[in-house]
Amino acid sequence: VQLQASGGGLVQAGGSLRLTCAASGLSVRTHNMGWFRQAPGNEREFVAALRSGGGSTNYADSVKGRFTISRDSAKNTVHLQMNSLKPEDTAVYYCAADSPPVAPYSALANGRLYDVWGQGTLVTVSS
User: Fold this and answer.
1) Cis ω on the peptide bond leading into residue 87 (within 30° of 0)?
2) Are 34 and 55 contacting, i.e. CB atoms less than 8 angstroms apart?
3) CA distances (Å), 43 to each of 36, 38, 75, 120, 127, in order?
4) Spatial distance between the Cα atoms of 22 and 15, rounded to a whole number of angstroms
């Protein structure tokens, strides 16, 4: 079971990036899938999540309207489209999976409920 995050890089404020999380050994459709981030000196924080099955989404207030989480079941990948990036979005971004029986929608932002984590990809937004 593995999650491989990619797509990070250096971008100017106002720019866009698309992160990809490639899953192996698990199905992104049957797992809750989430993106979290951790900036230097800060604790890990929730960014976005997509619930298993129907695919309801949840976002942190700080990224609502700018970020979009989606999945491609055929490719077994989850994406995070990030638009209008700000310097405060700079962090290592991690994808994570919550294995069945999955947590309810109300708990999607709780990182402690995710049991599979990828290695992280660095996003740097310059001002």
Assistant:
1) no
2) no
3) 10, 6, 31, 14, 23
4) 23
pLDDT beyond 90 at 25: yes
Residue type at position 111: G
Q: Quote the pLDDT of residue 28.
A: 97
Which tokens sit at 29?
A: 């459709």
Identify the pLDDT of residue 54.
87
pLDDT for residue 8: 98
| Residue 54 to residue 1: CA distance in whole angstroms | 23
Instruction: Give the pair of three-digit tokens for residue 4.
Output: 């491989």
Decide if 102 contacts 110 (C-beta within 8 A).
Answer: no
Q: What's the burial of 126, exposed, middle or buried (CB within 10 Å: 0-12/13-18/19+)?
A: exposed
What is the three-state SS of 26-85?
CCCCCCEEEEEEECCCCCCEEEEEECCCCCCEEECCCCCCCEEEEEECCCCEEEEEECCC
Closest CA to 44 of 100, 98, 115, 92: 92
Torsion of CA 21, 118, 60, 78, to 10 degrees: 20
